[in-house]
Amino acid sequence: MKLAAVALAALTLGAVLAGCASKSTPSTSGVPVGGNGLVSVFDRHLENFRVQEDPACVATKDKPCDPAFYSHTLAPGPYKVLAGKQVFVHVDLPLTEGGNALTGNAQMSLGLFLPEMPGCDWTAASLPDNCKVPVVGDAGPYYASSTGVAELQTEGDSIVTEPAHRLGAFLIENLVPYGYAVAQISVFGTGDSNHCQDLMGTAEQLGLDAVVTWLGTQPWSNGKVALTGRSYDGSTPWEAAMFGNPHLATIVPISGLTSQFDLEYHNGTSETRGAGVLYGLYAAMTIDGEASDAQSIVCPDYLTGGPEGVKAVLGGDPSPADPYWSERIFLPRALAKFDGPIFFIHGLQDWNVDPHMIFPAYNEFEAKGNPVKALLGQWFHNYPDRPSEHVLQGPGRGQEAYPYSVRYDWAQDMLEWFDWSLKGTGPQPDLHVEVQDNQGFWRVESTWPPAGRLDYRAPIAAAGETANDGTAITAANTLHFDLGVLDAAKDVRISGLPHLDQWVTPTGPGGQIYAMLTDKEAGIHLGHAIMDLRYNHGGRSPGVVVPGVAMKAHLEFEPMEALLPAGHHLGLELSATGEDYVGPTVAAPVILDLSESRAADNGVTMGLAYPTAGQFFTPPVWSGVATAGPPQP
Predict the structure, then answer these.
(1) CA-to-CA distance for 530 and 274, rounded, in angstroms?
(2) How many CB atoms lie within 10 A of CB 95?
(3) What is the DSSP letter of 468?
């Protein structure tokens, strides 16, 4: 399907929906608002969002002045932003954490940004209620020290008292003028925080909890704190959520980890970074030869992290019960302790933090009763609103959805979310899922995967085999299948987490299968899955694979939202590895059983969605010229 056709259809739908919002009432700008008093996502394209670059701006090396670099709220807030102030928060750590826990002087560093509000003296020991503000924090390892020195830096990173190029500036510029405090927080071992960089371990978790308590108990604080951020910074909200801290009112994780273990060793497979790469990369941020870091070298996680990663990759059987990994599995404890609202944000094309990190987390919190909202776009490991990142995506990996993937109403989303969850002054935003398919169409679902999807099973048989060299999956051999046309009359969307069932006969005590679904006519990727055969039953623990004994492999695909146009054939490719995964621990050929007796068992099962016209909307569309640049951390 041509992108132009997508654009025309989406814009037409947006115009129709704007005129048919029966529950809407005119706002002062003439844009309809819904029953909650907010302009609905269906009508935002009618508002005056900034969606082009400012030709009067002159960008500098350290900071682009282009106001369209990221999204902005519809109107600026009434307050000025005061200069950032550095704060140190003491953290009590158990002696078993080594490092600065041994001397009792472990501390976290943060940069605090407050609004200039009339009559509010932020240094006073007591303040009236009208001077109490909520806090939005971004915690991670990427802020430089106060001297501007850090071991893991990219162009544009800042010390904590300067707005960070990646997310900090966005939060400060959009939220502080509306009466919020923003905190840029350095996790242990980074920036000016001492102790160890223990890669999301116990010390880091305790440090985050202590910072949340400090932010929520200051005289100027209204007692409510939010944590947000992307990637590593999107994982720290989950770490803090495990404590049930009464001051943590909401989290907004953006492409964050709910479990370090399950990211690196999903279905028993290993990523290229699994063998100590992450450990070594982040540990290097602390061990930099400075005298002040001497105590940090004795941190116990430095001695266990690297070997654990190597053991997991070479042995292929990492244990979630191992102390190193068990403390880095956040989701079960967050489910038990955190009762606040969650705004999930993730790219369905994310190669860095795979989308399986938030599914089934979203569904489990929804079932538990937490208020949940989700924004799922066709972008990589990116922010929702950065055209300089989205423009880099390739064919079948989000390119077809650009520029409609760029959400220039995201800042407004965040303001409305925090007005409700932190201030209690705004109405509850619509708690729904905004999801984009791989051709660029945005729609609203009450939940995701969509509740009304239809189950469909595409069989795999020898008759459907094309251009295959036998039936063996080896390091040098990829098998190709035509799964046929899903719907000859109309477009269909594969929505959710498809799975592949396939009988195989291993030739060794293991093996690995990488599966990719494709649009054969367009020649593009739709979704993928990978599994070590020892994990064919699912779960986190390996089973026994006996050479020569047939077994049924059950592969779950990454969450996907893919439009297959009417009449297009669904393709399936099977190989030993793909993406950024290492080869199988046991490099033995895997033989597919495509016999007629197995035909009823072999196939790809998927959910097909046929949304109604009333579910589609057009966001404010980026219409500028994006200058490609490397994604910020």
Answers:
(1) 15
(2) 8
(3) -
